[in-house]
Design a protein that fits this description.
- The complex is a heterodimer.
- By secondary structure, chain A is α/β, with parallel strands linked by helices.
- Chain A is 33% helix and 26% strand.
- Chain A starts with a strand and ends with a helix.
- The longest helix of chain B is centred in the last third of the chain and has 32 residues.
- The chains are: A alpha/beta, B mainly alpha.
- The complex binds adenosine-5'-diphosphate (ADP) and magnesium ion (MG).
- Magnesium ion binds next to helix 1 of chain A.
- Chain A: It comes from Chloropicon roscoffensis.
């Protein structure tokens, strides 16, 4: 199989405890991420991107359709690093994912060091979380995922709290990780509402109102997807302004 | 425009924690904004308008928060009065937890190299002496701790931090001094019935002993209140300062390791407690110490950014605003703990499999990419 993740005809409802009041947030979503790809999921706020992510991560149940994740392990990193960092210092935070494995200290140390250097945080392992910048915190959250050698990264708007410089810094880091993976097996699903990030994508999907309304299989098709997104935003703006 | 604009607003306000900024950051932000713009120009051909609008909205927001949290801008000087409450808020915003409860790895001192278990034993020893010692031993202890702080803690923060703790102790001591013997218990007079026995005036001032030093009616300073105030000062100083010395020079991992893998080992042998879970709890509480600090700063910053003119408000309104903001801080903290619990689940946590607390110190030799 070439796919790392494939969803076919996925329906997900939220709210109302699954009763009549619950509302379909994802409607017939078809999306696949190929191995070794950085696949971007573009969509406006509230279009259902996080819902898709959480469903893939197994945090939400789906009512209908098929969801196949061909690789493991899968790790998710969310929007706000302050909410995802668990332990008080950089080294301990990265090592947290390894608490379920009996490893010897040297091995743990080596893995933590590697994960930190993968995200350009080498040498900071003793630092307290409170002394890190926003960009460093988000890289740290990424390192916490990488230490477990995941095959699929689910990254939900991880640049939305960062300034432009850090935004592209983190994006380039992820791109380099995928391109530099020795097995070529590492893939990532990158969720965003900023179309300028699509220049780094291997492929992309456009989500609107819980549906996939456009797909780009390569960089060549990216421009038309971005234009489609712009039109959706433009239409929405006209609706909002009288 | 409105749609994406509000989206951004929500994103920023929910990410309150990342907004904790000192005045230094203003410069960086200005620079970032410049990059931002050049980026925008470059991306104009392909990137859609709403994203740009959204970002412009964001940078405008940044302007507001920086100008209000650094110093009162000349244009808004009238509106921004620095009365008592604003001053306190400003202090909270610019304060950091760093020299108080957060581990400071650099510059490394003798204390950094000392074994964490030894440091914990010493700290406990200080507490015991402070709690049970005589007034002389307490004062000696305080002098010792103060001298050790100046000698061993890095000069970059030791003096400022020591003065902070001293100030706090003196305030406590001062109020103890005033209050300890202020309320006199009305005793029934029990004078002898024989008037001859009352002629004991000759004994007065035979020695220099005085119980009451100062007596202004309501304010009365006696031997007892002096003793009590000295004890309170010494106890508080010894407790806070020895803890600070321990916390700033020992990483949370080392501290946790010392008491879960050494002092609490008997509990593990006797199977009374799950020591692995204790390790996690201890580490989590260190994380929350930092979060509470940041959340208080956010609340203070929110108040400053709103330019509330405290002087014009009635007391009830002040209390109302205060409670609203504290409620907000507590709610934020609860929601963050919820999120952190969720993120523990995402990273595969369940109490059975997470039985190998890896508390390794990853000392690296530089190489910051
Ligand atoms: N916990 C929830 N309960 C009910 N509805 C929700 C919940 N979270 C999100 N939604 C709804 O699902 C839709 C998609 O939200 P989300 O997946 O967070 O969008 P995005 O990540 O694209 O901004 C929104 O309309 C939102 O109102
Ligand atoms: Mg989202």
């Amino acid at each position: 199989m070439m796919e790392a993740l494939s969803a076919r005809g996925l329906w997900v409802s939220r709210g109302g405890n699954g009763g009549a009041a619950s509302k379909a947030v994802l409607k017939n979503v078809n999306l696949s991420v190929r191995r070794g790809h950085l696949h971007m999921l573009l969509g406006r706020n509230g279009s259902g991107k996080s819902t898709f992510m959480e469903t893939v991560a197994g945090l939400l149940p789906y009512q209908n359709g098929e969801l196949e994740i061909e690789v493991s392990p899968t790790r998710m990193v969310s929007q706000n690093p302050d909410h995802s960092i668990i332990l008080p210092t950089v080294g301990a935070e990265v090592a947290f994912g390894l608490w379920d494995q009996a490893l010897d200290p040297d091995d743990v140390r080596e893995r933590v060091r590697r994960a930190l250097s993968q995200v350009n945080l080498g040498g900071l392992s003793e630092k307290a979380i409170g002394t890190l910048s926003g960009g460093q915190k988000q890289r740290l959250a990424l390192a916490g995922a990488l230490v477990e050698s995941p095959k699929l990264l689910l990254l939900d708007e991880i640049t939305s709290f960062l300034d432009a410089e850090n935004q592209f810094g983190v994006l380039r880091t992820v791109k380099a990780l995928i391109d530099g993976d020795p097995t070529g097996d590492l893939s990532a699903l990158w969720v965003t509402h900023r179309s300028e990030e699509l220049q780094y994508a291997s492929s992309a999907s456009l989500m609107e109102n819980g549906e996939i309304v456009g797909v780009a299989q390569s960089q060549a098709e990216m421009d038309s997807l971005v234009r489609q997104f712009e039109e959706i935003c433009e239409g929405q703006r006209r609706l909002m302004t009288p | 425009m409105a749609r994406s604009g509000t989206g951004c607003w929500a994103a920023r306000s929910s990410g309150g924690l990342t907004e904790a900024l000192g005045a230094r950051e203003v410069v960086h932000r200005g620079r970032n904004r410049a990059r931002f713009r050049s980026h925008r120009r470059r991306g104009d051909a392909r990137a859609p308008a709403p994203v740009h609008d959204c970002r412009r909205e964001r940078s405008r927001r940044l302007d507001v928060s920086t100008s209000s949290s650094s110093s009162p801008a000349p244009s808004s000087a009238g509106a921004h009065k620095f009365d008592g409450i604003s001053k306190i808020l400003n202090q909270v915003v610019t304060a950091t937890s760093i020299p108080y409860v957060t581990y400071v790895p650099e510059p490394a001192t003798v204390l950094h190299r000392l074994d964490a278990r030894l440091k914990q034993v010493l700290a406990v020893g200080c507490l015991v002496v402070a709690a049970r010692g005589t007034i002389e031993t307490r004062l000696a202890l305080c002098l010792g701790i103060g001298a050790a702080s100046v000698a061993f803690l890095p000069k970059t923060y030791s003096v400022k931090q020591l003065l902070g703790v001293l100030k706090l102790c003196l305030v406590v001591g001062f109020f103890t001094l005033l209050a300890a013997d202020a309320v006199t218990v009305p005793l029934q007079q029990r004078l002898p019935s024989d008037p001859a026995l009352l002629g004991l005036a000759a004994f007065e001032d035979a020695t220099s002993y005085k119980y009451t030093f100062v007596n202004f009616g309501l304010i009365k300073i006696t031997r007892r209140s002096v003793n009590l105030a000295a004890a309170a000062c010494a106890l508080q100083f010894a407790t806070i300062q020895s803890t600070v010395m321990c916390l700033t020079t020992t990483s949370p991992e080392e501290l946790t390791k010392a008491y879960t893998q050494f002092f609490l080992l008997p509990l593990k042998w006797l199977r009374v407690a799950n020591v692995n879970e204790l390790s996690l709890s201890v580490l989590l509480s260190f994380r929350f110490l930092g979060l509470i600090f940041e959340e208080l700063q956010n609340v203070a910053k929110g108040m400053l950014a709103r330019n509330i003119n405290w002087r014009d408000l009635k007391l009830v309104a002040r209390i109302d605003i205060g409670t609203t903001l504290i409620t907000k801080a507590v709610n934020n903290l609860l929601s963050i703990s919820n999120q952190i619990a969720r993120s523990m689940m995402v990273r595969g946590y369940n109490s059975k499999s997470f039985s190998h607390p890896h508390l390794v110190d990853v000392k690296e030799d530089g190489g910051n990419g």
